[in-house]
Design brief:
254 residues
Amino acid sequence: MTGGEAAPPADPIQAPGTPEREWRAWRGLDALPPAALPERGRVVVVAAHPDDEVLGAGGTLALMARAGLHLTVVSVTDGEGSHPGSTRVTPAELADIRAEELRRALTALGAPGTEVLRLRVADTRVALHEHDVAAALKPLLEGARLCLAPWTGDVHSDHEAAGRSAAQAARSASVDCWSYPVWTWHWARPADPRVPWGAAAAVRLPVEIVELKRRAVEEFASQIHPLGPDPADAAVLPPEELAHHLRDIEVFFT
């Protein structure tokens, strides 16, 4: 870096992201093998914050609900820390808003009967409670056919900690755990060596399922629209970020 140049953001999530057109042009996604979804039984879906499960795996949830599988969604935090400087909404109010948004999103996916459990771990503090989260998840995973959880390399501390907790609990319960990326699509690039493409598999989504997912994502108004004109109330997920999650494919590391 030469004198006068600004230092790049220390947090890759705050840095400029990879345009969705680059991902759509990459043949590597088309080459991923299909993920074999369970045909019956119960699936536990772990999310660090309400909306992670829909962004990363909403189409897959819709397919499993359509197939008659029983879904349990676990919100590790309530996502109350998404707008820490806001004067328009308190963290407690935001927690309830986001819980209701998740419920409406699951209904939009065709899964209104999904069981939703809130562990209420403090937002941004999941890494301090990994053992407790794993202990809470283990009995939920007993007898399950599959666990879906955030990828442990997603470069968001809550996502990574929730993923580690889920993986630990799944191992204890002898249940397969697939990881879904969320922020990876922002900071990584096609064929990025930091991403375990060799362990990746894809769920390809029919057109009608993509539409259900789009409707579900729109339910997260607190995240995709500004809460107000103040910079502290800006949208967390602008259109260029949402574009990564509205494709006809979802990727899991198996």
